Amino acid sequence: SVTPFYERNIQQWHLQIESRFDVVSKKPIAGFVAVNIPELRIQQVFPGQLLPGEGTIAFLINVSKSVPVELWWPSGHGNQPGYNMTTMFIMKEEYKIIKHWKVYFRTVELVEEPIPDSPGLSFYFKINGLPIFMKGSNWIPADSFPGKVNSKMLRLLLQSTVDANMNILRVWGGGLYEQDEFYEICDELGIMIWQDFMFACALYPTNQDYLDSVRAEITHQVWYSLHGNEGYDKLSQRSK
């Protein structure tokens, strides 16, 4: 996953990159990770070692202040520029694992502030420091048989969202975690996602084993399904 974040006090963008591996070898595997983002003039190499079992390699890249970064905006508020990024894990035996993705830069802020002469708090989002009026709908599975949902169908439905002047979709918690391409097209079209987790219309246990399972599910889904474009360490704990 790759998570861009902006450090306001020094006015600089960073990329937190994290790769997870499942190593079946009984011995550690040494190698290095190469990251290339041509438009941002980033070409860096990091040494790494994978231990047997499940493991993670994480590192931080600083985007040079001399390189202008174009921001991603919701539909109707600006463009959605993305940067092509390639990462390679190269082992000493010259075996390569290559991953290509798009990186989008944006800041997201949930504003909860006291309302003068009124009980409660405000609840709205700022994207790149600008308050955004969200207009959207619910997204349910596009077909009762997920295997029938192809690229053409996804693009048609998501483009119709933009054509209807919407800029956000709530992925309904009674459905399923969507395929990668769904989120990729949403990024491309400027559609924000309010992601439910799949806990709808039922009573759920509260014992520690179950809560640990839920935490693992949420962490994995935000990290994997949402491509790490937002940090997964700060999740809302409020019920709807």
Automatic annotation (TrEMBL):
Organism expressing this protein natively: Micrurus lemniscatus lemniscatus
Gene Ontology terms, MF aspect: beta-mannosidase activity
Gene3D superfamilies in UniProt: Glycosidases, Immunoglobulins
Name of the protein: Glycoside hydrolase family 2 immunoglobulin-like beta-sandwich domain-containing protein
Keyword Hydrolase found: yes
GO-annotated biological processes: glycoprotein catabolic process
InterPro entries attached to this UniProt entry: Beta-gal/glucu_dom_sf (IPR036156), Beta-mannosidase_GH2 (IPR050887), GH (IPR017853), Ig-like_fold (IPR013783)
UniProt KW S-adenosyl-L-methionine keyword: no
Superkingdom of the organism of origin: Eukaryota
Record keywords: Glycosidase, Hydrolase
